[in-house]
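Page 47, continued from p. 46.
Same chain as before, 289 aa.
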Amino acid sequence: MDGWIILDKPSGVFSKTAAVRAAHLFNTKKNGHIGTLDPMASGVLPVAIGNATKMVPFIEEFCERTKEYLFSVQFGFETDTLDITGTEVSRNNIIPTESALRAILPKFTGDINQIPPKFSAVHINGRRAYELARSGQEIEIPSRRVKVYSLELTGISGDSWNFCMRCAPGTYVRSIARDIAYSLGTLATVGMIRRTQSGIFSIKNAYTLDFLENLFNNGGDVGEYLAPVDFGLGDIPVLNLDDKSTKLYRNGGFVKVGNTDGLYRVYFDNKFVGIGTVSGGVLKPRRTI
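Result:
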């Protein structure tokens, strides 16, 4: 079977591990996922199964990929990982006022500069930053531009300050929390991160690993929860072929069409055939299913 499983990844599980476990339910090792979540984070993790892996690069490059996160912050101390799973490295016990915090939130929306956490998956000289950090090496991660569409304080519960953020890919929640705290003259540690949206993939359509694995182990049909291969490609326009042109396309041939230049989702008889590029009135295959 080919398609997408929209996982509600549990906290404490690596994204790659979750994707492999999901693929096992469909008797395949062929899998991929969009948007790695921190191990401590939970929420939406789109997992491509089988031939859906061919669509990952197109979703990542050509489709809308807004992320939404719910997260909580505790002020007054900081850990090496910037979240509650790390080792405390500094404490000042300074708790900001709500009015002061709300006043500085607009500074963290729009295009902003951000330094990713040392314990993150960004590459430093060909290696992951977290690998270098775990080995005790001192590393400097360069600042980069990220985009935050909205950031709001949604409530305070005990010592946890709760937020909702919508942002572009590459934005780190832990860095946002750290930088908010620094702007207020204090420190912060993230207690919870939950992704509720990744592009078209929503928590409303997500299933937990426990649910899917229990269903599988009891002889249920996990395929019922598999979204189609072309799910998530809605920002790419459609091009329909006839039977003869489809056979030519599937065999790697070029097809004369009347469409304008650009990338297209290719269909025959309402069935997804693949992704192709039109140039000079000629459709050329990029990926076929």
